[in-house]
Hints:
Helix content is 38%, strand content 14%. It is α+β, with helices and mostly antiparallel strands. Residues 1-7 have low confidence and may be disordered. The site of flavin mononucleotide has 8 residues, from strand 3.
Amino acid sequence: MSVSAAFPHDVGLLEALATTRAIRRYTDEPVLTRDLEQILWHAGRAPSGSNRQPFRFLVLRNGPNAEAAKALLGEAFRAGWATKRSGDGYRPSRFADSMQHYVDHFEATPVVVLVCLDRYREASPYEGASVYPACQNLLLAARALGYGGALTMWHLGVEDELREMLEIPANVALSACITVGVPAGRHGPLKRKPLEEVVFDGRWGDRPTWITA
Ligand SMILES: Cc1cc2nc3c(=O)[nH]c(=O)nc-3n(C[C@H](O)[C@H](O)[C@H](O)COP(=O)(O)O)c2cc1C
């Protein structure tokens, strides 16, 4: 079955913004190469400071290097979730189950993208601003083509090993690790704070009177 037949995805931009959530369960269908190319092309349309485009996408699919890196990442993800699960006191829930499933099946993730920042100057606290728009573009482009993904940080647990294994130079930051596949579940409404809680009007703390939704 093709991706499009299983997951109709003619979704408008605003609907995609309102419903694209982290997808952590994937079917075993592949991410088609032409779709992956499209996803990465659209990710690369993101803005960056002075249009320097410091983002780089290190793609892990199949083959010995990719499989070894996915195995390493799998260990880091399982450790990351185990620490978070006990540290944050997660009770049994659908969310906790989906996280456990995600990390337990990490090696089977169809596509893993290490989103990197190729530094051209000293690290700055704002440098992520030239990479994370590309991450969100990637997730939205994946959504548009019937896929789903999750942006994660658990790769940092094995950053040194990944650098060595994948020959990532010292001036390159590993900004995010994004997993992509065909969703086993659905996208849907997002749990977010109401707008009046996150918008101030004119002065910090002043609530807008014009928010209706
Ligand atoms: C900076 C950042 C770091 C994140 N790190 C992780 C992570 O390490 N593991 C993970 O499973 N999800 C991670 N996420 C995904 C968030 O948990 C998720 O987007 C958030 O809880 C909202 O859930 P939703 O996308 O399902 O609405 C991260 C997201 C962001 C933006």
